[in-house]
Each structure stands twice: as structure tokens, then as C-alpha cells.
Amino acid sequence: MFCPKCGATNDDNAWKCVQCQTVLQQALTPTAGGPSEVIPNYLWQAIVCTICCCIPLGIPAIVYAAQVNSKIAQGDMEGARQSSKNAKMWCWIAFGVGIAGGVIGVILQLCFLMIPGLHRY
């Protein structure tokens, strides 16, 4: 980056000219919920819950997780927080239903194994 006042070469991320101290870029001031705030998108968790636990309940988790980064890019921090919260909620619901279904499946298999005459070797 070149200084418009003196023509000196500066780093691309410099905010002041190294030679004449002219302001090249305004320093970013963090706003409420600004760049220092990290909002998780839970995308990988949503994908894992969808594949391993419960497909129908994992799909909303993926949809909400995919919305987080685009809302952050648009500056909608409250919307990003809400989408993150919804993605987390649907991940836990899909995980819980998947675990419950697995436990019920194992219990049913054990019950059917105990009934004489149902299984043939």
C-alpha cells in the first residue's frame, strides 16, 4: 500500500504511514457483539448427528448451522446468535433421539433373543 500523501511504501495492513504518519485506514473499533465475539456455527456437529444419529432431526441442525456465518457476514449478530442456538438445540435433539433409538433397538433385540423359538441357528 502506498501513502497518498508522501508515496511511501507501507504494509497492506498498516493503518499509519511509516514515513509521514498519515492515517491510511481507520482503526476498527469493536461494537457490541463485535469482532471479538465468537459465535459457533455447530456445522460439524450437525453433520455428524445427521449421519450417525437421526437424519430427519439433523437436517434442521445443518440448515441453522449454515445460516450462522452468512448472518455474521451480513452484520446480523443477533440473528447469528439465534441460528447458532437453534443449530445447537437441533443437534442435541437429534443426538438424544438417536441414542434413545439405539438403546431401544438393543433392548428389543435382547428381548427377542430371549424368546424361545424366534431365532433359528
Write the layout of secondary structure elements.
Elements: H1 43-52, H2 55-74, H3 77-114
Describe the structure in your own words:
The chain contains three helices and no strands. The protein has two domains: 1-27, no CATH class; 43-114. The N and C termini lie far apart (78 Å). Helix content is 56%, strand content 0%. α1 runs antiparallel to α2 (55-74), α1 packs parallel to α3 and α2 runs antiparallel to α3 (77-114). The mean pLDDT is 86. The chain has 121 residues and is mainly alpha-helical.
Overview features:
3 helices; 121 residues; mainly alpha; 56% helix; single chain
Which structural class should the secondary elements be placed in? mainly alpha
> What is the average of the pLDDT values?
86
Number of helices: 3
Helix content: 55-70%
Largest sheet: none
Gyration radius over CA: 27 Å
Low-confidence stretches: none
Please indicate the count of domains.
2
* Helix-strand pattern: HHH
| CA-based shape | rod-shaped
Distance between the termini: 78 Å
According to DSSP, the number of beta strands is: 0
Name the beta content range.
Answer: under 5%
Brief digest:
With 121 residues, the chain is mainly α. The protein is built from three helices and no strands. The radius of gyration is 27 Å and the shape is rod-shaped.
